[in-house]
């Protein structure tokens, strides 16, 4: 006597298709972004506080890149 098969859970794509009502991934090429409609907003404050520990992390990970871009520390 054969054992009944366990029903597998739906894949993420199958779940999206059931939710959206159309297949995922979407057929065809993705739309190109029209950069002329983008708006860039700078709402940062004039001065941003940075701790010494944060500077140390950036220097540890990006020190070589900073030296290449801005020259070595004096």
Description:
It contains two helices and no strands. The relative contact order is 0.06. It has one domain. It has helices at residues 12-20, 52-70. It is elongated, with a radius of gyration of 26 Å. With 74 residues, it is an all-alpha fold.
* Radius of gyration over C-alpha positions, nearest whole angstrom: 26 Å
Distance between the termini: 81 Å
Strand content: under 5%
Global morphology: elongated
Low-confidence stretches: none
Share of residues in helices: 25-40%
Largest sheet: none
Would you spell out the secondary-structure blueprint of this structure?
Blueprint: H1 12-20, H2 52-70
Q: What is this structure, in a nutshell?
A:
The chain is mainly α. It has one domain.
Write out key terms for the chains shown.
elongated; 2 helices; mainly alpha; 74 residues
């Amino acid at each position: 006597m054969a054992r009944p098969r366990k029903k597998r859970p739906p894949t993420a794509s199958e779940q999206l298709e059931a939710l959206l009502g159309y297949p995922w991934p979407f057929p065809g090429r993705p739309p190109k972004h029209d950069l002329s409609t983008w708006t860039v907003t700078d709402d940062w404050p004039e001065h941003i506080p940075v701790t010494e520990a944060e500077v140390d992390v950036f220097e540890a990970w990006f020190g070589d890149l900073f030296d290449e871009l801005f020259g070595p520390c004096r």
